[in-house]
């Protein structure tokens, strides 16, 4: 049976991309009808001064997805010449490919502009434990450049308990935690906005809002008009098809309050698979599925072939995870 490592390594495009400068959004052409995967995994050589935060911001990746894709590598000092995986291959989220789709489990936003056959994707900071981000379908209701921040009473009280007194209003500028732009959502009290702190994108850091790198929020704001639909999901396991193969991408599950989930992973994987009616009846390689779920590294890995002609399978029985 093909090892998980071998399956992933075949997807790597070894590119020397170590610049720490901010780049534009990850933009991909939409795959052909019936396919679900965009992008390619990349491998870079770290420089001595590189950190995962630097490499992430340079390549539109969040901190935790960098950590997940590079088990055993020191995120603060990978080391001169160390191979670092950039997880820039994605199974598109389930459901309609329209407007904005946010998947909390992967700390990532996807934007499908109207009348363009492309998708843009950005890393996000989401609500931390106790301040879970919402789920459901809404829309952008307003867009505000250079916003002032009016800390709500709950946040002022939280900071006061730690001995920090917040003002009732923080004007636009480098100290404003909303960054250079905010988009108000129809979910009451929730925003998509920039940040005055680079570290924290791709992590659970906010009071429920969605934080972006400042260059990213400006790009998204320029593309997404008011009334753009926004669908927020929490899908740690994504199945997709590409080139006649079935892939699985696994992330660490979160519950609705932003806590690491103790979900029955076997049941969660089956439920995610059942949402894909086009995949019913396939004989999956359940040994590989179990490895992918255990690794939670966010890398799409092949687990079956659509025609079932060359699938290494444990049979119809589904082993416990």
Q: Can you walk through the features of this model?
A:
With 321 residues, the chain is of the alpha+beta class. The chain folds into 3 domains: 4-91, no CATH class; 99-233, L,D-transpeptidase catalytic domain-like (Beta Barrel); 237-305, no CATH class. Helix content is 18%, strand content 26%. The protein is built from 7 helices and 19 strands. It has helices spanning 4-9, 52-58, 63-69, 153-161, 214-223, 265-274, 286-295; strands at 12-14, 26-29, 37-39, 41-45, 83-86, 89-91, 99-103, 108-112, 118-123, 126-127, 136-145, 181-185, 191-193, 204-206, 210-211, 229-233, 237-242, 245-250, 301-305. It starts with a helix and ends in a 16-residue tail after the last strand.
Q: Which spans have pLDDT < 50 for at least 5 consecutive residues?
A: 1-22, 309-316
Determine the mean pLDDT: 83
Structural class: alpha+beta
Task: Give the DSSP E fraction (strand runs of 2 or more residues).
Answer: 25-35%
Largest sheet: 9 strands, mixed
Distance between the termini: 18 Å
CATH class of the largest domain: Mainly Beta
Radius of gyration: 20 Å
Protein topology:
Layout: H1 4-9, E1 12-14, E2 26-29, E3 37-39, E4 41-45, H2 52-58, H3 63-69, E5 83-86, E6 89-91, E7 99-103, E8 108-112, E9 118-123, E10 126-127, E11 136-145, H4 153-161, E12 181-185, E13 191-193, E14 204-206, E15 210-211, H5 214-223, E16 229-233, E17 237-242, E18 245-250, H6 265-274, H7 286-295, E19 301-305
Parallel strand pairs: 1-4, 7-16, 10-14, 13-15
Antiparallel strand pairs: 2-9, 3-6, 4-5, 7-8, 8-9, 11-12, 11-16, 12-13, 17-18, 18-19
